Amino acid sequence: MKIHAITSCLEAWAPLAYQESYDNAGLIVGDAAAEVTGVLVTLDVTEAVVDEAIRKNCNLIVAHHPIVFRGLKKLNGRNYVERVVIKAIKNDVAIYAAHTNLDNIAGGVSFKIAEKLGLTNVRVLTPKAQLLSKLAIFVPDNETQKVLDALYEAGAGQIGAYEHCSFRVGGTGTFKPLEGASPTVGEVGRDEEVKEQRIEVVFPTYLEKPMVSALKKAHSYEVPAYDLYALTNENQEVGSGAVGELPDALSEADFLAYLKNRMNLSVIRHTVLRGQPVRRVAVCGGAGGFLLNDSIRAGADVFITADYKYHEFFDADNRVIITDIGHYESEVFTKELIQQYLLKKFDTFAVILSEIDTNPVLYYL
């Protein structure tokens, strides 16, 4: 098994196209063509984590946070980032990061928090727009299913919890092959009419090239007729944060105790309690303050995230309870999320959770 097989699988799950513009997800260190001896899954990559990978014969570290974020101009070991990269290269340990692309998918980081809290009816809090395209292709009647199957295989036709979604309408296609053409139907120099289906499917825009390649391979025409449209629709499966409901409403005090227990927290920073039951909960792993208004619009009673600054707590304005549970604490279960995914896909090598606590924030209790 090559490293690129693992990274390709991760990117089919959390496409790099869905990372934020400032991010640096993907293979950061290492040879994608190297054989995998084992995978170590971690939240952060530190020197201790690289040592652990070496000790456990894992030559691929899969992390949530990229060790190289803003770029490196020198590699002389002057800080922990450079030392980690140098140690990984010297020991042939590859480092891969699934960061905001994993934040931005349904079933990703925030959905893992929702799972830990037992939330139901979980959906993306703030879906992203302009990530979808539509393909309209004209196909002879007898090739309709063949072409549709190829498009589905390439990733088209997924809308929410439904797959193999399409629209078709019948009509008549006309054409006249010119000299030099090799028509599948008809003859050069003669006008032709063919009963055809206009098929429409929606697909993630980043899949445009494989989508067009799939339709051309499946279509019998020398020059298939098709149209591509950029859509402004929101993609309900891609976006920031998550929101869901507790099976039963809890008092605010009971919910805070429940949150502390389920997320294994030492402390919770929160805004004033509102004296109302808690049922709907919005969550965002890591620094999610930018989603405050979205959580309020979603009708959340509590918004769980991290990295709130003092003055930002005032923004709750008694419309929702902000709970800051800590950056590490909100994302540490991402390790389980990645491990569970890889174990479902691969069983020929070890996928191990790192035992290193990489939290740089300590509490004196």
Low-confidence stretches: none
How would a textbook summarize the main sheet? 6 strands, mixed
Q: Would you tell me which CATH topology of the largest domain applies?
A: Udp-n-acetylmuramoylalanyl-d-glutamate--2,6- Diaminopimelate Ligase, Chain: A, domain 1
Share of β-strand residues: 25-35%
CATH architecture title of the largest domain: 3-Layer(aba) Sandwich
Radius of gyration: 25 Å
Average of per-residue pLDDT values: 96
In whole angstroms, the N-to-C terminal distance is 46 Å
Question: Can you tell me the overall shape?
Answer: globular
How many separate helices? 11
Order of SSEs, N→C? HEEHEHEHHEEHEEHEEHEEHEEHHE
Structural class: alpha/beta
The CATH superfamily of the largest domain turns out to be NIF3 (NGG1p interacting factor 3)-like
Q: Count the beta strands.
A: 15
| Strand order in the sheet with the most strands | 5-10-12-13-14-11
Q: State the CATH class of the largest domain.
A: Alpha Beta
Question: Share of helix among residues?
Answer: 25-40%
The tally of structural domains comes to 3
Care to describe what's here?
This protein is α/β, with parallel strands linked by helices and 365 residues long. The chain has three domains: 3-99 and 333-353, 3-Layer(aba) Sandwich (Udp-n-acetylmuramoylalanyl-d-glutamate--2,6- Diaminopimelate Ligase, Chain: A, domain 1); 109-125 and 240-330, NIF3 (NGG1p interacting factor 3)-like (Udp-n-acetylmuramoylalanyl-d-glutamate--2,6- Diaminopimelate Ligase, Chain: A, domain 1), CATH 3.40.1390; 131-231, 2-Layer Sandwich (Alpha-Beta Plaits), CATH 3.30.70.120. The protein is built from eleven helices and 15 strands. The protein has helices spanning 3-13, 47-55, 80-90, 100-103, 109-116, 144-154, 208-218, 252-262, 292-297, 327-331, 334-345; strands at residues 26-29, 38-42, 60-63, 94-97, 120-129, 132-140, 167-175, 192-204, 226-231, 234-250, 269-270, 278-287, 302-306, 321-324, 350-353. Strands 5-10-12-13-14-11 form a six-stranded mixed beta sheet. The radius of gyration is 25 Å and the shape is globular. GO terms for molecular function: metal ion binding. Keywords: Metal-binding. It comes from Larkinella terrae.
